[in-house]
Amino acid sequence: MIFQTKQKKVAGLILFSFLLMYCLAASVVYGYVDTSTSTVIDSFTKFNGSNEHIIVQTVRVPRALIAAAVGASLAIAGAILQALTRNPLASPGILGINAGASFFIVCAVVVFSAHSLQVFSWIAFLGAAFAASLVFIIGSIGKEGLTPIKLTLAGVAIGAVFSSLTQGLLVLNETALDEVLFWLAGSVQGRKLEMLTSVLPYLIIAWLGSMLMAGKINLLLLGDDVSRGLGQRTQLVRGILVLIVVLLAGSSVAVAGPIGFVGIVIPHFARAFVGTDYRWVIPYCGVFGGILLLAADIGARFILMPQEVPVGVMTAVIGTPFFIYIARRGGLTK
């Protein structure tokens, strides 16, 4: 743990928050169309209708805000899932959220000929919520109720089913593959600010809820027996946490598609800085997640310029080495 005292943790959070703001500004300034800081400022104070000003307001600002919100949400969701499942490799995908959202999107394209990203966002949210609900119901079956191992197994099983169904639909309809391929790779390119504002109320509720539940997560990590002995209703707490994950990951997938590795890697970085106290892990995950996705998105603009790499590909490139390291290290989250 790098930050041992409360004062250092507060100072670190402030420092990384400034870094997040810098990444937000860099995301707005840098891209294929050459702009500067003064151009960005002028686009809001002296708007003249130029291409540069229009791009800043309608493309880059929404893209930066979406990347920051999605990165923060996926990281927090991953941290909660790693605590719930006691699995250091847990991420939103473990609940079948990505797979459920992807299946619903492909169904919408194949069956209903849907094409709008705005429509995709709501269909994806519905699919994510449906998949997570199935996992929660199946994982709760039995006399012991919802347990970490049952939640993990149910998530893997439901995710496999939805992934298989999605692949089957794409094999039968190659046109659908062309329609949804970019979305399935995970991207914040071309997303409008309205897509973020449509899910922002759910994200705010989930962000606040995760902070309020942080102390209860700490008790869960002590074990069910200890948690119950201290008066905590473990099944209710797990149910609320699963709902928070659905709101966080479902909203993120709805807006940006299934972006991987953020929810796996970032919680480990947060715990390396502040330990296992989730009252600090969650805010650090939010800041680190936003920084990672913003940095990945900025990099995605320049690798194959003028073409852009989906940010989901960039996070995979960045996250794979850490994923391998975590997998080889093994062990459970404390």
Automatic annotation (TrEMBL):
Gene3D superfamilies: ABC transporter involved in vitamin B12 uptake, BtuC. It is found in: Cell membrane. Coiled coil: none annotated. It comes from the Bacteria. The chain crosses the membrane at residues 64-81, 93-113, 119-139, 151-172, 199-219, 240-266, 278-296, 308-327. PANTHER family: FERRIC ENTEROBACTIN TRANSPORT SYSTEM PERMEASE PROTEIN, SIDEROPHORE TRANSPORT SYSTEM PERMEASE PROTEIN YFIZ-RELATED. This is Iron ABC transporter permease.
